[in-house]
UniProtKB/TrEMBL annotation:
Belongs to the bacterial ribosomal protein bS1 family. Belongs to the cytidylate kinase family. Type 1 subfamily. CDD domains: CMPK (cd02020), S1_like (cd00164). The gene is rpsA. PROSITE patterns: GUANYLATE_KINASE_2 (PS50052), S1 (PS50126). The lineage of its organism: Bacteria, Bacillati, Mycoplasmatota, Mollicutes, Acholeplasmatales. It comes from the Bacteria. This is Cytidylate kinase. GO terms for biological process: pyrimidine nucleotide metabolic process; translation. SUPFAM superfamilies: Nucleic acid-binding proteins, P-loop containing nucleoside triphosphate hydrolases. It comes from Acholeplasma brassicae. GO terms for cellular component: cytoplasm; ribonucleoprotein complex; ribosome.
Length: 692
């Protein structure tokens, strides 16, 4: 019987011997570490002191006896297990192993050793030269930095320190020599599976290779074709046995053809570590024969190949029934997650994974994940694709419904007129969104303040807390107002400006009966024509323009009707208020203005009166300025007065005439002989004047 052969090749420190040794233990294979053989030859060559560069001095190799016993290696009967790991050996082994004579001699020893047994052999040329027909070829590799790191760890365990860069350099140098030598260089066999263990644990790698071995050792087709009953039992036969002895980690079974078999706990499957409480005497167990020549004549059994099919059935059923399965995340790479379920590798591309999980992908390794299978294809390398789409879409739908219910519940509690506190969640040029809890409302720019706002960002910021009034509710829509909670400009104005207070504002409109004055933005008042001036002759319509600033006093503020009445004249005294004139009364006047050819404006008792040119003198006045100047004071007689019209007409002439008359009267009193009457005298006087 040729035996089952596994070839493991790869560069230095990629984990070949560690992995091979563990798999050999697990699957009952014989492990042959060929590197150790080349090292043993190198050690002996150094011991002998031969010229290492001279191939003819290596004849001794054909006579060397190399043996493995109890995990130790012996060369010509000497235990060289530790010695072959010396730096000196490591530095020279690539040179020694490059000689064709050395290689050919060792290759034939290795091929002989592997004959007729189940073997896992590791080295540099196993898949290409030593076992070219191996049932499984693996090329193990890892990034050189990772390999150096692992080697450094090995050294540190033995209290040896070394610079990691130096270590990496040495590994690279050895790889270069091994892969560029002429005779059987280190290359990847064309039919090898390349496994990069940079990011794999030892267990990951073992599991991966074990799966490949099991797949090749016993295939489905073989199992189905077997009818093992009453036949000579062979490796790969499916048998049913009855348990007759149970130990912690092994069970013993009687097989149907009276042979005895045993099964170690790790071959029972289901991840158990002890048979206690799992299997009892008398139980029937179906298994596959994995080895026939086990001492003392027990047949080795395993349920793993069967479980593999059972597990695949579980996977197929889960796929058919669209069942949610709980998987374990074993690896995270740039394309997606690698999952494990029932011992199978499943791939889940990021496009089918929840967005939040994609964002935190680097923390996922080792976690469990519920998925659905969306593609299941059996074969040498089953193709299993999983998806979270159904799960996250269902969750999103549920969250959406929960949100909608919460919104509905909240909105049902809100009514038009309610005053609520919320947070500014979004700002756009003409409106902001205010979030309460599950619902949000719209606060238009026009509803923020009573005054006009040019830039919304000047008055609110994202995250601001704001009190608003619900001014409209329509279905799920809320229209909000903040200004509804603020005093109106009228209210603010009326608070600040009591009756009588002076205010200034620009004329924005001229009406036939008065002026509209803007006192503040949005606050306008009426200055009625009757309130413009005390002076009845002041006609604002003629000399007040739109835009002129007018000062006035507040007469009345009616907040409800939004009306403000203003008075300009209230700011001034009415000069006629306490003044009275009588016709014929003489008063002191002061010239304030000369109006050429017409007369003079004068001030009398604080008001303005007018003396026409005809009343300035008893004589004809050609040019007023020849007789009077602004500032002159004199007595004048009131000849007409109308306080309502602010009308006062005066005469200087009449006083002068009186004075003339009284002079003549005095004259007549002193001249008793005089014959002329006063009337005569006046008549004469006037006649003379007319002549002039
Ligand atoms: N994922 C892994 N796979 C394999 N070995 C690993 C892994 N992680 C760490 N190691 C460690 O890397 C070290 C090197 O492994 P090992 O000696 O088996 O490599 P090798 O390929 O046989 O090297 P060499 O060819 O130099 O003898 C060991 O200490 C091993 O435990
Ligand atoms: N099949 C092989 C195995 C090993 N070598 C050479 O031996 C060196 C030491 O091997 P380790 O696996 O113990 O590191 C290695 O660097 C090779 O030069 C070989 O040529 N062929």
């Amino acid at each position: 019987m040729p035996g089952f052969k596994v070839a493991i090749d790869g560069p230095a420190g990629s984990g070949k011997s560690t992995i091979s040794k563990k798999i050999a233990e697990k699957l009952n294979l014989t492990h042959i570490d060929t590197g150790a053989m080349y090292r043993a030859i190198t050690y002996l060559a150094l011991e002998k002191g031969i010229n290492l560069d001279d191939e003819s001095e290596y004849e001794f190799v054909s006579k060397v006896k190399i043996e493995y016993k109890n995990e130790k290696i012996y060369a010509n009967g000497i235990d060289v297990t530790t010695k072959i790991r010396d730096d000196k050996v490591t530095k020279n082994v690539s040179k020694v192993s490059s000689f064709p004579y050395v290689r050919r001699t060792l290759v034939s020893i290795q091929q002989e050793a592997a004959k007729n047994i189940d073997v896992i052999m590791d080295g540099r040329d196993i898949g290409t030269v030593v076992l070219p027909n191996a049932d499984l070829k693996i090329f193990l590799t890892a990034h050189v930095k990772e390999r150096a790191k692992r080697r450094l760890k090995d050294k540190e365990v033995n209290n040896v320190t070394q610079d990691i860069e130096q270590l990496a350099k040495e590994l690279q140098e050895r790889d270069l020599k091994d892969s560029t030598r002429k005779e059987s260089p280190l290359v990847v066999a064309t039919d090898a599976i390349v496994i990069d263990t940079t990011n794999f644990t030892i267990e990951d790698t073992i599991e991966r290779i074990t799966n490949e071995i099991l797949k090749r050792r016993i295939t489905m087709e073989e199992l189905q074709m077997k009818d093992v009953k009453f036949q000579t039992l062979k490796v790969r036969d499916k048998v049913e046995g009855t348990v007759f002895k149970v130990e912690d980690n092994v069970i013993y079974l009687t097989l149907e053809n009276f042979e005895e078999g045993r099964m170690f706990v790790e071959f029972y499957g289901k991840n158990i570590t002890s048979f206690k409480d799992v299997v009892k005497e008398g139980d029937k167990v179906t298994a596959i024969i994995t080895k026939m020549n086990d001492e003392p004549s027990y047949i080795l059994l395993s349920r793993l190949p069967l479980l593999k099919d059972e597990s695949f059935k579980v996977i197929e059923d889960a796929y058919k029934d669209n069942k949610t399965i709980e998987t374990k995340i074993t690896k995270v790479d740039e394309k997606g997650l690698h999952l494990k379920y029932e011992g199978f590798d499943i791939f889940l591309p990021y496009g089918l994974l929840d967005r939040e999980l994609v964002e935190s992908k680097d923390t996922l390794k080792g976690q469990t994940l519920e998925v659905h299978l969306i593609e299941v294809k059996n074969g040498k390398r089953p193709r299993l694709i999983a998806s979270r789409k159904q799960i996250f879409e269902a969750r999103r739908q549920q969250e959406l419904e929960e949100r909608q219910n919460a919104r509905k519940e909240e909105i049902d509690q809100i009514n038009t007129g309610d005053v609520l506190k919320g947070t500014i969640e979004r700002i756009e040029p003409h409106a902001a969104t205010v979030r309460f809890n599950h619902v949000a409302g719209l606060l238009r720019i026009s509803q923020i303040q009573h005054r006009r706002i040019e830039d919304i960002n000047e008055v609110i910021k994202l995250g601001d807390e704001i009190e608003v009034k619900v001014i409209k509710k329509e279905g799920m829509r809320l229209d909000l107002s903040h200004k509804a909670l603020l005093p109106t400009p009228f209210e603010a104005f009326s608070e600040e400006h009591k009756k009588g207070s002076a205010v200034k504002g620009a004329v924005v409109q001229k009406l036939p009966f008065g002026l509209i004055i803007e006192l503040e933005e949005g606050v306008r008042g009426l200055l009625h024509q009757s309130e413009y001036s005390w002076n009845p002759n002041d006609n604002f319509a003629n000399f007040v323009k739109i835009g002129d600033v007018v000062e006035s006093a507040v007469l009345l503020v009616d907040v409800k009707k939004k009306k403000i009445s203003l008075s300009r004249k209230a700011l001034f005294d009415n000069p006629w208020k306490n003044v009275s004139f009588k016709r014929g009364e003489n008063v002191e006047v002061k010239v304030i203005e000369i109006i050429t050819d017409k007369g003079m404006n004068v001030e009398a008792k604080g008001v303005v009166g007018f003396i026409p040119v005809s009343e300035l003198s008893t004589e004809r006045v050609n040019k007023i300025e020849d007789l009077f100047a602004v500032g002159d004071t004199m007595q004048a007689r009131v000849i007409d007065v109308n306080p309502k019209e602010w009308y006062l007409k005066l005469s200087v002439k009449q006083i002068a005439e009186d004075s003339l008359r009284s002079e003549y009267e005095q004259y007549l009193t002193h001249d008793e002989e005089a014959t002329t009457t006063i009337g005569d005298l006046f008549e004469n006087l006037l006649t003379e004047k007319d002549k002039k």
